[in-house]
Design a protein that fits this description.
It is a single chain. The protein has 82 residues and is mainly alpha-helical. Helices cover 67% and strands 0% of the residues. The chain is built from two helices and no strands. The two termini are 31 Å apart. 1% of the residues are buried.
């Protein structure tokens, strides 16, 4: 049973290099830390109206940080795992 292929079309595949996952975790941690430093700056920059400042500081900024973290992680994964 150990000699049977495990892929759908019964082909032989070799494992690639191991991807260092700690890099993505450090990027995510950096995004969390940068949120705490950037959120007051964004709230002060968008002065009027206050609801727009709240939306930009609490909704848009975290989404932009997560988007940039995900993009950098995918770029690093593409370059380092091949």
């Amino acid at each position: 049973m150990a000699d049977e292929a495990t892929t759908l079309i019964a082909r032989d595949e070799s494992s690639g290099r191991s991807y260092p996952m700690f890099i993505e975790r450090l990027l995510f941690l950096g995004a969390i830390v940068s949120f705490f430093f950037l959120q007051p700056v964004v709230m002060e920059t968008v002065d009027t109206p206050t609801w727009l400042a709240a939306i930009s500081g609490w909704c848009v900024l975290p989404l932009l940080l997560m988007l940039s973290t995900e993009l950098l992680g995918r770029i690093l994964q593409r370059t380092l795992s091949d």
